[in-house]
Amino acid sequence: MLKTDVLGRVKTPAARREQLLDEFERSGLSGKKFAELAGINYKTLATWAQKRRRRHGSYAAAKVPTTTDKVRWLEAVVEQAQGSVVKADGPLLVLHLPGGVRMEIGDVKQVEVAAALLRKMQNPC
Fold first, then answer.
1. Confidence grade of residue 78 (pLDDT, cut at 50, 70, 90)
2. pTM
3. What are the Cα distances from residue 124, in Å, to 39, 90, 118, 119, 121?
């Protein structure tokens, strides 16, 4: 069960907030777009970022990502296929995930399953 405050808002642990802020800084996305993709309120993200800058004592200095810790974001839109099954010689989509994991999607019906799996992977246990 998620912890909530007296107003019913979900409380995010400090370690998770820092992880999200690190990902935001490396993403190159706008705050609004990142918040939308991460499933958090934009105002919440902005408040976390502002508090972090105050803690570090600098608004001007931003963390510059190194080549080893860059995060690449990709937005994909999947439209409903006209036929029941799309046939292809190879996979329709190949995802290369952290840790050397490779996910191949060969059928339009598998896209929803893959999306659900990726959402679950976003919030590890």
1. low
2. 0.45
3. 15, 30, 11, 10, 6
